[in-house]
Amino acid sequence: MKRTQLAAAVLLATGSVSAFAATYSVTPLPLQDTARNNFARSIDNSGKMLSVAQLEFNPPIDAEQLEEDTTFFDQFGESLENEDNARQGVFTDVDYTTIVNYLLSNSTSTTGQKLASYRTYATDTQDIALVPGLDQVTDKFDDYTQSVESTGRDSLNGNFIVGDSTALVVLDPYEDEDGDTINYTYPESAQQAFVQASGETKVLPAVDTTAGGFSSARAVNANLQVAGFSTVSFRDDVSDAVDTCADDETRGDRSEGRCLYTIYNGEFAVPRISSYFINSSSAYLPSFVLLSEVNATIWQIDVNGDVISTDTYPLLFEPDEDDALHYFTYAYDINNQGIAVGEGLTGDRITITRPNSSGRTESERVATVFRDGETIELLPREENIISQAIAINDENWVTGAVLRSQSDIARSRLFVYNLDTQEQHYPDGFFVSAGVTANAINNNNIVVGKADVDATSDTLRESAAFMYNIDTEEFTDLNDLVSCDNPYELIEAVDINDDNEIIANARIKATNKYVTGVDVINSDGETQEVDTVVAVKLSPLANGSIEECEVPEDEQPYERKGAATGILALFGLFAAVFMRRRLKK
Hints:
By secondary structure, the chain is mainly β. The strands form 8 sheets. Strands 14, 15, 16, 17, 18, 19, 20 and 21 form an 8-stranded mixed sheet that branches. Strands 1-32-31-30 form a 4-stranded antiparallel sheet, with no helix packed on it.
């Protein structure tokens, strides 16, 4: 269902349109023929955008591995449209889709081909280019293996792209004690931060690279400083496990590489503060990371993408010597003054009551600033349950979210804070108890993200993309600033550049397709429409004006405090509905 301009008439009547009087045009990124869904990641000042494609069409299939190293044909052979052809690598639309779904659902199996669910593309709305991460071109496919999940997170003038990548999946034949050969397949290491410069990808290594280490790159500034985080130490358990894998007598009847994989395997995602998190055992962290300390890390790179120096920022506190819990500081963004922001654990536990749940004990997390070698807590802890800083601009405005209780239920709320003046604001969203998620801020002091639009008691509420102007204190639904016949429902604004161009996630009905990209035809000979998420670019129209759209009865405006007059988005709704797992923020 397309949202019309619910508040357009109110905005025009009150005259509170100032900086937002221009409408926006909406352009989908050219990835609809590449994947079923694609998600917005970033837009830089050159207009270059990054988008993560999910469930790409026509992935390469290794028929030999499928037959020899999996149980696929034993399980599903008789149900295929043409089993004999499938064994030879010739697939119908239906069989191709069945095979790909099988491989995706068996990504952690010991043997067999591995396929990535997500890969990143760079685009300017015309052309697209794969951001391969640590993937490689092989003779077998005469192309990339598509076994590597790459998440591009930020770019500089389209020339430097930073992000995270799983390692290349290797084929490791091993002859066991019975003389049988097992063709192990697994990624060579845990997730690694990377930079792509002039088309070449280079790893940004962790400080402690035991078992390969773990690292994540989140943002790059004009001085080629890359902000993120990495492992700086591990508990002895990890070193002991590595030693066990290196010893033929202690690792068991398996290859050393496969043994090491059992140490570092697992998926990593950073939860927003609207989600439950505890640092002793978390679905967001593999055990490898839980046995480490992770610190905010700044990599200084040169024009070739080579690391010149690496700086890390410590924890907010000094753990007791016998404290074996996992602690971290994370940097999510960095401005051109070299000031980074993010979050860190305090070492304390707190009880939080979230929607549709009773109070649960969680790890306390707080927004942090990283500058001049120091980790500094940003906000008054007594005013917030937990907090998280997400972005900073060159005016030293920081934005993110705090968790505060409304009627004893904790939901995220937007904050903006100026490091120079200590000025701070906690604007409401579209209504007083609305959950708000900030994603980015530009140098025009405009914040974008997503905010609840329905005042229900549900854990997951419908959301809309918003824009918040710090200078005018206007909180605006971006759906109100596009044409009335726009077919895209803007559910989250992900990034904004200094030309006020925005990359956003939008929901739209699209024809259901097989993994080949061919339309699915039902028994009545008709196509089927399904909800799809696509990334779109919003471009300001210099001579535009807000349209006063007719609002259907079933789309009547929700009640807003003061309308839009000076009041106060990898992965929550679409992560739950559309994605197998995270879309990393």
